[in-house]
């Protein structure tokens, strides 16, 4: 294999699995270390800079970082990264001194943000400190978008939402709420320098089955219903409720129903339990609230009596895996099941939908009615119009909206400066900083903590079910947060090897608790992987290969299960191994000098 | 000195041996020796060898004297018996331990100071008594613990870190062991586990006195350009004459040899030692020939490694003394103290 190029920012970035897995590339180990030092404000700001909504995400994120956490591979459960983010938000002090200054004198460029959800807010946050004038339009009476309308208060308290939304609005956004956009052409005629569409995926899917039209009065689309609850238009539901769908919206619908008066709530899903779209913890919380989830039941018919919904007929199927590992659902032969109900909440997916964008103004849409976008710049076929968040590539989590927003903001900035929005993008970078403080002193806590993942305390269930505003998860307190922070393996403190210093004494091989290091003859990757101290079978994880050593061999390190304990560097007589913090520079406005 | 504790977690695919233990179960405390010390590699080789032999850790007795080498039993086999004896006196304690409990696997770890200087008398006598044990010398040619004076195994002309040459002839423990009758004699290098691990396994399984001289560089005081016991010198001057592959009784023979290329030596426990000659003129069963070969190689500046001598019909002290098969340590008072009548009988025999 070739010598590993550790100067390539991606190499060590990939080693920090959580940061690599996070769409916004939040430097997770960095903020967890700050939490461990009880520097909550700084930990919050590291998050805020990268993902914009730490308090909100600390409660609602889909956590793409957690399944990829190294701890899953070395032991069992990932570090509770998401809940630690919340710890930073819950315990932070005054963040105002750390906020970027917004110039009073504007730069003369006006940007229109369509929608006031997470994507638009993040774009505003990135652009305001550079002197842009930002006009934000939304049909709702307040900012926040789906974070306000679709996430129930028992998961995301209003004050947490408002704090982080207002923080951005107060940076100087000209908010135009209760503003229903009916024509993109009209917007373009207003002469802004650039437009960002962050209007989300506001259309909930429906099912065209017998009886659907007739029972319309008793069937609601999940996201619309949640929104009505959030804005206080609906404050109760009665009788037996069936929630159809297996995503997080379905979980929010059933738990909300239970809180505002449903006699009984049942979730019915057409697919199998383990392939449901809802996050595992969302499913668990619904089940903890004694809400049954019935799987493998596709609906066939809505049964009604002169328009009064009576129930639903479901088919019985079972999943069968084909040779490609895909699940096909085949009838089990059991008779159809009839379930009584008085109300149905339909949460079977949602899509982006922009009927207000005329199709003859230069913004092209593909055959799925999604805008044609450049995946790097988020630019549409209209040079001044950009998309981001759910309206770009369909429904995703809030963290994706932040990630899109950073890129779109860079594009808008480059466009307004008359630069090439592809060619002139700021590059990625990596800095490596030695963490050695003395002969046996390291600037980070290298000790491995074998503790199991700590459980987040919950509110008393009967209290929580009585009031939709009572937050169910209580979050880690300081003490638990400190304990959980210790579980982080500091994957951004990298093992950096200098081949010219190595005397091949084997000290690192002997001490490594995970058998990551091998000195051997070089070879092709597949061959090398098979003859290391421990076989390197996880192909998703790279091998770190040194240049040729004195004996003609090379050092090969399998990054897969390295604990970053630093023992290799500690036991190296010549400092050929050093523990160096990799600071990954993820391009974002404001982090690069102009 | 390392202050970061070695994490207990191990590689998820770390294999288990036949008795359900993994290699990490054979470790001891984290070493307090200098970073890069060859002795730590010898400990790691011992750990690997003992784990592969699948012998429960409590069946081992570790014995050592004084010196850097003699600290190492603390760093392997944490769950076994151990005795850290007076300087140069490990052989006496090992003799006692082995006589008292012949069922234990004895591992003696000593150094060039402990065995070739203060303890050379004891060393000579444990060899000739053929105590059934594995005796390892971590040989770095220097007194590391007292800041780098030449030891008795340091080659004449080899220099100190400051460039001063050694004026005296070295003692070669391998030649000594061969001369006085050791049944298994080998030399290896701490930086070559591929060679060292099978030698340790074979040495432990060989009946009688097994001796391995391990060149184990001292990074702090004897790893410089003028040294003949540095990593670099050993790597460039080592010449293996006989490779030994150890095959456990239950193991299938996987290595593929051509006819006449290997010789199988049966070990007392049913395991086999496959010897491959790497040097045509060398015969690992010829004690006198081995001595001549070693002396010539030393003159040529070559470090001869590998299995240098093995006595296929090895004998040990218990056989020589014709002791009972049951370890003395588990015999009862009645057997050990047969009473006045028996003593009178013995005394009468001397009259």
Short description:
The complex is a heterodimer of chains A (594) and B (351). Chain A has 594 residues and is of the alpha/beta class.
Give the topology.
The complex is a heterodimer of chains A (594) and B (351).
Chain A: H1 9-15, H2 17-21, H3 28-36, H4 40-51, H5 54-60, H6 70-74, H7 81-91, E1 110-114, H8 118-127, E2 133-137, H9 146-149, H10 158-169, E3 174-176, H11 184-189, E4 194-197, E5 203-204, E6 219-221, H12 222-230, E7 240-244, H13 248-259, E8 264-268, H14 280-288, E9 293-294, E10 299-305, E11 308-314, E12 317-321, E13 327-331, E14 337-340, E15 343-346, E16 350-351, E17 385-387, H15 390-393, H16 398-416, E18 429-434, E19 436-438, E20 441-442, H17 461-466, H18 478-486, E21 493-497, H19 507-511, E22 517-520, H20 525-530, E23 543-545, E24 554-558, H21 567-570, E25 577-585
Parallel strand pairs in A: 1-2, 1-4, 2-3, 4-17, 6-15, 7-8, 7-15, 8-9
Antiparallel strand pairs in A: 5-16, 10-11, 11-14, 12-13, 18-25, 19-20, 21-25, 22-24, 23-24
Helix pairs in contact in A: 3-4, 3-7, 3-18, 4-7, 5-7, 7-18, 8-16, 12-13
Chain B: H1 38-53, E1 60-64, H2 68-71, E2 81-84, H3 90-100, E3 105-111, H4 112-116, H5 120-129, E4 133-139, E5 142-143, E6 149-150, H6 173-180, E7 184-189, H7 193-205, E8 209-215, H8 231-237, E9 238-247, E10 262-266, E11 272-277, H9 287-299, E12 303-310, H10 317-321, H11 333-336, H12 340-350
Parallel strand pairs in B: 1-2, 1-3, 3-4, 4-8, 7-8, 9-12
Antiparallel strand pairs in B: 5-6, 7-12, 9-11, 10-11
Helix pairs in contact in B: 1-7, 3-5
């Amino acid at each position: 294999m070739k010598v590993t190029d550790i100067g390539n920012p991606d190499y060590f970035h990939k080693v920090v699995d959580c940061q690599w897995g996070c769409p916004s590339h939040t430097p997770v180990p960095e903020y967890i270390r700050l939490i461990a030092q009880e520097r909550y404000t700084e930990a919050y700001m590291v998050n805020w800079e990268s993902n914009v909504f730490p308090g909100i995400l600390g409660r609602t994120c889909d956590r793409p970082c957690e399944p990829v956490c190294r701890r899953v591979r070395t032991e069992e459960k990932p570090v509770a990264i998401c809940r630690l983010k919340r710890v930073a938000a819950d315990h932070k002090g005054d963040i105002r001194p750390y906020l970027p200054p917004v110039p009073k004198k504007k730069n003369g460029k006006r940007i229109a943000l369509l929608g006031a959800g997470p994507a638009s807010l993040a774009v505003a946050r990135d652009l305001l400190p550079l002197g842009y004038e930002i006009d934000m339009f939304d049909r709702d009476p307040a900012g926040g978008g789906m974070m306000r309308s679709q996430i129930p208060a028992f998961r995301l308290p209003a004050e947490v939402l408002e704090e982080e939304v207002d923080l951005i609005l107060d940076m100087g956004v000209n908010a135009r709420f209760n503003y229903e956009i009916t024509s993109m052409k009209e917007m373009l005629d207003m002469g802004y320098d650039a437009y960002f569409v962050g209007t989300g995926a506001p259309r909930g899917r429906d099912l065209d089955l017998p009886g659907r039209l007739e029972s319309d009065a008793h069937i609601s689309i999940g996201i619309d219903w949640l929104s009505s609850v959030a804005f206080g238009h609906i404050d109760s539901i009665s009788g037996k409720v069936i929630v159809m769908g297996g995503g997080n919206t379905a979980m929010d619908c059933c738990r909300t129903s239970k809180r505002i008066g449903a006699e009984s709530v049942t979730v019915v899903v057409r697919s199998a339990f383990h392939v449901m779209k809802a996050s595992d913890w969302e499913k668990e919380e619904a089940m903890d609230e004694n809400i049954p989830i019935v799987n493998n039941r596709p609906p066939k018919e809505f049964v009604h009596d002169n328009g009064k919904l009576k129930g639903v007929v479901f088919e019985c199927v079972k999943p069968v895996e084909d040779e490609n590992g895909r699940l096909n659902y085949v009838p089990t032969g059991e008779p159809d099941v009839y379930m009584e109900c008085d109300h149905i909440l339909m949460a079977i997916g949602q899509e982006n939908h922009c009927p207000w964008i005329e199709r003859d103004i230069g913004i092209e849409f593909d055959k799925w009615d999604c805008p044609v976008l450049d995946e790097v710049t988020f630019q549409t076929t209209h040079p001044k119009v950009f998309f981001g968040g759910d309206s770009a590539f369909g429904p995703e989590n809030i963290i994706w909206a932040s990630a899109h927003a950073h890129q779109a903001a860079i594009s808008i900035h480059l466009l307004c400066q008359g630069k090439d929005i592809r060619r002139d993008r700021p590059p990625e970078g990596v800095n490596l900083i030695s963490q050695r403080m003395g002969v046996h002193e390291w600037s980070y806590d290298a000790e491995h903590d074998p503790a199991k993942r700590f459980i987040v305390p919950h509110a008393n269930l009967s209290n929580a079910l009585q009031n939709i505003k009572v937050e169910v998860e209580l979050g880690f307190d300081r003490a638990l947060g400190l304990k959980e922070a210790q579980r982080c393996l500091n994957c951004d403190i990298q093992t950096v090897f200098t081949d010219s210093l190595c005397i091949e004494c084997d000290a690192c091989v002997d001490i490594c608790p995970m058998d990551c290091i091998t000195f051997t003859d070089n070879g092709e990757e597949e061959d090398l992987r098979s003859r290391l101290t421990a076989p390197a079978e996880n192909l998703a994880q790279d091998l770190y290969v040194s240049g040729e050593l004195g004996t003609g061999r090379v050092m090969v390190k399998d990054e897969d299960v390295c604990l970053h304990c630093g023992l290799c560097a500690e036991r190296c007589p010549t400092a050929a191994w050093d523990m160096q913090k990799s600071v990954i520079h993820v391009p974002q406005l404001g982090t690069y000098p102009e | 000195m390392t202050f970061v504790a070695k994490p207990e977690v191990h590689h998820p695919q770390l294999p288990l041996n036949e008795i359900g233990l993994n290699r990490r179960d054979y470790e001891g405390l984290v070493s307090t020796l200098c970073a890069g010390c060859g002795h730590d590699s010898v400990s790691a080789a011992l750990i690997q060898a003992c784990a592969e032999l699948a012998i429960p850790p409590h069946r081992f007795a570790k014995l050592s004297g004084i010196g850097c080498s003699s600290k190492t039993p603390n760093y392997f086999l944490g769950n076994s018996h151990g005795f850290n004896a007076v300087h140069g006196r490990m052989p006496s304690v090992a003799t006692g331990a082995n006589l008292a409990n012949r069922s234990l696997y004895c591992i003696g770890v000593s150094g060039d100071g402990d065995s070739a200087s203060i303890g050379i008398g004891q060393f000579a006598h444990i060899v000739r008594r053929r105590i059934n044990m594995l005796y390892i010398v971590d040989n770095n040619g220097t007194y590391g613990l007292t800041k780098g004076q030449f030891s008795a195994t340091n080659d004449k002309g080899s220099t100190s870190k400051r460039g001063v040459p050694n004026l005296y002839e070295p003692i070669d423990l391998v030649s000594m062991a061969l001369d006085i009758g050791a049944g298994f004699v080998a030399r290896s290098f701490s930086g070559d586990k591929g060679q060292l691990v099978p030698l340790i396994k074979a040495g432990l399984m060989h009946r009688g006195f097994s001796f391995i001289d391990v060149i184990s560089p001292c990074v702090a005081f004897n790893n410089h350009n003028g040294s003949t016991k540095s990593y670099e010198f050993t790597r460039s001057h080592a010449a293996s004459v006989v490779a030994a592959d150890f095959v456990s009784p239950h193991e299938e023979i996987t290595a593929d040899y051509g006819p006449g290329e290997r010789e199988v030596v049966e070990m007392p426990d049913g395991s086999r030692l496959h010897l491959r000659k790497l040097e045509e003129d060398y015969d690992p069963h010829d004690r006198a020939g081995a001595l001549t070969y070693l002396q010539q190689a030393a003159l040529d500046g070559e470090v001869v490694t590998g299995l240098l001598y093995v006595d296929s019909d090895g004998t040990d002290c218990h056989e020589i003394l014709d002791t009972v098969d049951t370890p003395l340590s588990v015999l009862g008072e009645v057997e050990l103290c047969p009473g006045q009548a028996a003593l009178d009988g013995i005394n009468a025999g001397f009259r």
